[in-house]
């Protein structure tokens, strides 16, 4: 690998370590010419499928766009950034597991709604109202009835207090 300091192509690996999950390899390198050290990271580069929009247009999958739309739905809700990141990771893993080169945007939307429903019911309703393009209050009421009809699992009567400063946009 080429030295970022002097450009010499003959660098040497001084140390190699894997992260805990074995997903990333960290290498400490040394340049024999300028004697400077630097770190490189090696990770698997998986190709996310392209997204086919409702109008037929195709676009590349964008992690930041997915996370941003979920973050918007979760605005001022007691959900941590870690929980959001984990949900985005699960969606990406499901998309990769499909093994398809192209995935309809509807599939992505359904995966997002499924994850938001697990994270926060209000965020789920917010996202669903935009995603499903609710035309009137009756459609909101129907989704609220659907959410209320589902059994609650060990849910406290009051929303939990934020446990860290990573609670999204809590004010």
Written account of the structure:
GO terms for molecular function: ATP binding; DNA binding; zinc ion binding. Residues 49-139 form the ATP-cone domain. This is Transcriptional repressor NrdR. This protein has 171 residues and is of the alpha+beta class. The chain has 5 helices and 6 strands. The protein has 2 domains: 12-43, no CATH class; 50-149.
Which tags fit this structure?
171 residues; alpha+beta
Q: Which spans have pLDDT < 50 for at least 5 consecutive residues?
A: 154-166
Mean pLDDT: 85
Which structural category do the helix and sheet elements fall into?
Answer: alpha+beta
What spatial order of strands do you see in the largest sheet?
A: 1-2-3
Distance between the termini: 48 Å
Protein name: Transcriptional repressor NrdR
GO molecular function: ATP binding; DNA binding; zinc ion binding
Function: Negatively regulates transcription of bacterial ribonucleotide reductase nrd genes and operons by binding to NrdR-boxes.
Family: Belongs to the NrdR family.
List the SSEs and their pairings.
Layout: E1 12-18, E2 24-30, E3 37-43, E4 50-52, E5 58-59, H1 63-73, H2 81-98, E6 102-104, H3 105-119, H4 121-131, H5 137-149
Parallel strand pairs: 4-6
Antiparallel strand pairs: 1-2, 2-3, 4-5
Helix pairs in contact: 1-2, 1-4, 2-3, 3-4, 4-5
Quick recap:
Its cofactor is Zn(2+). The chain has helices spanning 63-73, 81-98, 105-119, 121-131, 137-149, and strands spanning 12-18, 24-30, 37-43, 50-52, 58-59, 102-104. The protein is of the alpha+beta class and 171 residues long.
């Amino acid at each position: 690998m080429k030295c970022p300091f002097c450009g010499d192509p003959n660098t040497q690996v001084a140390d190699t370590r894997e992260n805990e999950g074995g997903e990333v390899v960290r290498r400490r390198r040394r340049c024999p010419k300028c004697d400077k050290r630097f770190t490189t990271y090696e990770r698997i580069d998986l190709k996310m499928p392209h997204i086919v929009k409702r109008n037929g247009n195709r676009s590349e999958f964008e992690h930041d766009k997915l996370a941003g739309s979920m973050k918007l739905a979760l605005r001022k809700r007691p959900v941590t950034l870690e929980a959001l990141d984990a949900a985005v990771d699960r969606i990406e893993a499901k998309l990769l597991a499909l093994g398809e080169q192209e995935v309809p945007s509807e599939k992505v939307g359904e995966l997002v709604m499924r994850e938001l429903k697990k994270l926060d019911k209000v965020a789920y309703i917010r996202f669903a109202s935009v995603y499903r393009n609710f035309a009137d209050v009756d459609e909101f009421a129907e989704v609220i009835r659907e959410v209320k009809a589902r059994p609650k699992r060990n849910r406290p009567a009051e929303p939990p207090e934020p446990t860290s400063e990573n609670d999204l946009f809590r004010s």
